[in-house]
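Q: What structure does this chain adopt?
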Amino acid sequence: MNVIITAFERSPDGGQGLARDMRLRWALEEVGQPYEVRLVSFRAMKEPAHLAVHPFGQIPTYEEGDLALFETGAIVFHIAERHAGLLPADAHGRARAITWMFAALSTVEPPILELGTARIVESDKPWSKERLPLVEDRVRNRLHQLSSRLGDADWLDGRFSAGDLMMVSVLLRLKSSGILNGFPNLLAYVARGEARPAYVRAFDAQLAINKPLPR
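A:
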């Protein structure tokens, strides 16, 4: 059955790998699963056809035959379960990899998203200068904890897994902030993720549809 995912017709980040369809692309590339991409405009995301698949009117979605999924964590988990390469074969290793997937989305990503909101959406608020350092401290606290756990290892728990895929995807949102520069091992960790051939293929595919339109 053909796999079809949805992506922004024009991504807000210009195709720099931050839109969440990138996580699906990367996972599918890692397991060698071909897929098609249906591009969706911001207007179409709020129309009934798309809302029938994603009730919150966002991207990405995943369709495979009569199966339709939304939420990147759930989709990457489905891909990892369906195809070899993203979850360890042993039960304990598999459980730990899944734990890291949840940790990336539930523990590490929320303060990072909050930082983006504080820096972009709330920057013109009178209380922004007082709030921003508090948000940055919350992000650094999480990074200190993650950095300590990673240490000098290449990946979070032995070999690369879906847990690393999700964690690297989350940390990539911090690259432009400069905060990651204070954590050399996390910088190197993210760089290892970006260097994986599957990531490169996924990034190039996402970038290709977001190149500036000819004038």
